[in-house]
Amino acid sequence: MKKSHLHFLLCILFIYSVQAETPDWVRNNGRSKEISNSEFLTGFGMAVITHDITKSECLQLALDNAKKSLIEQIYVKVHSTASSKTAESEDHTASYFSVATQSTSSLELLGLQTKIYYDDDESIYYALAIVERKRQYDFYSANAVQAKKEIARLLDLGRMNEERGEKTKALENYLACIQLFHEKEQAQMIAVVLQSNIEKAFSELEGSGKQEEDQLDAIHASIERLLQKPIKTVGDLAWFIAYSLKVQKPDTTFTLAVLPLTYQDTRMSSPFAIYLQQILSGKVVEVCRWNVLAQSKAMPHDRVLLGVYYKQALGMKFIATLRGVGDGKLIATSEAFLDSEAVAQTGLSIVPENYVQAARDQKTFADGEVATEGLQLDVWTNKGSDNLVFAKRERMRVLLKVNLPSYIRFVYHLADGGRVLLMDNYYIDQTKVNHDYEIPTEFQCDAPFGAEVLQVFARTEPFPEVQTVKKGEYDIIVGDLSKFLSQTRGMTKVKQGLVQAERRVVITTVNE
């Protein structure tokens, strides 16, 4: 998983705890009987002093980790809610949440309070980040209402400019509406998970979805009418995405990575998406004059073009977003539709080869998933962590970062259903804490191909043994996925101070 870059609108109150007795929130990994879960959200962070950081730097790391943990509480809830609902919903709702769940990497926290505690014996700082649910809910609800008003204003302005023959201005107005729709969706989705009765809030939100989708369709029709260039082929689709992004962001003073779009909320790519990526990269250079770089951590870029696509009754809808790399901020958005015949003419699948099994596994991963408390784990590859595609014979390197000395369990879920225990109880000692650490093994992409998952666990105590059988050079985990997850995630009746974290990176492998 990529290293998060979170931006906060903070009103921070530091509460320094100078206590003889260890606070209950330290003993219970962030949980306190004095803090009501129905009224507050909390995040728990830790940091240990090492030879290369000062005590003050350690304190700041603990505070940052607590904030990240709090953000993760919201993200996990958004993602799990969306994953469970998109399977039950019609197309417009699936679209709604596919975009919203990709937009929670940059959140604003109001009225953030923090508590800290220093354990002198262990040289560890503990931090607790606290926000009031209602205050956050009011903030995001107000954002959604404001976005809705601005959409109405821009629609009226666009129609007026179109009637006057000001086509360029009208196009800018309509494209700005689409971006505002997604900003409103993000705010509404976050507001939903901040409420105690999620089912009721979700039902209210879902009820307005069809009306908004109809409004979006009307805006798309206006945009196509102004451009006078119907989208009939994949090339037309790529041109439209590039052109509409350029209208919103005309400058050329940045570097960009164009990533394959992913299918709905699965984070899986496909042969079709890779084909579209290749054409889109060319159109971005041709139409926008933007400097496109390869997807690589070794070639850092300023912005990234990524997005989702999903099935509708008569074809496919594509939603592409231009985002900042440092802050994840949405810069520009493009939406377009391509009919089923044009998609079929490519002869390429819109989902990975093992889609059915991979989608089933994703639901199993989400069941019982919990946010990190205390132990921060970041995982990424030599290509980053977003919308990853590796072709046959390409090599993958894996890097990670932890904030505490940890034992690592490294599992690779293959496209054929096999679950390989690549490393177990690999120890990251104190000298490697808070540093990027590359796993001393390189992996080469080979058959079987499809959607695969790199899953990494970190724990401050050794993991219990998991049963495996030898198959060639690999140790294959015995039993189904649910059983393995319960064995590895289960942490009941463990000693005080044991913390654990989990990260997953979805990788689509192809035979190219």
List the helices and strands and how they pair.
Layout: E1 13-16, H1 24-27, E2 40-48, H2 55-86, H3 91-100, E3 113-119, E4 124-132, H4 133-163, H5 167-193, H6 198-207, H7 209-227, H8 234-248, E5 255-258, E6 262-263, H9 271-288, E7 291-293, E8 303-312, E9 315-324, E10 330-339, H10 340-345, H11 355-366, E11 377-381, E12 388-391, E13 395-396, E14 398-402, E15 406-413, E16 419-428, E17 437-438, E18 443-444, E19 450-459, E20 468-471, E21 474-477, H12 481-489, E22 500-510
Parallel strand pairs: 1-3, 5-7, 5-8, 6-8, 12-22
Antiparallel strand pairs: 2-4, 3-4, 8-9, 9-10, 11-14, 13-18, 14-17, 15-16, 15-19, 19-22, 20-21
Helix pairs in contact: 2-3, 2-5, 3-5, 4-5, 5-6, 5-7, 8-9
Compose a concise summary of this entry:
This protein has 512 residues and is α+β, with helices and mostly antiparallel strands. It has helices at residues 24-27, 55-86, 91-100, 133-163, 167-193, 198-207, 209-227, 234-248, 271-288, 340-345, 355-366, 481-489, and strands at 13-16, 40-48, 113-119, 124-132, 255-258, 262-263, 291-293, 303-312, 315-324, 330-339, 377-381, 388-391, 395-396, 398-402, 406-413, 419-428, 437-438, 443-444, 450-459, 468-471, 474-477, 500-510.
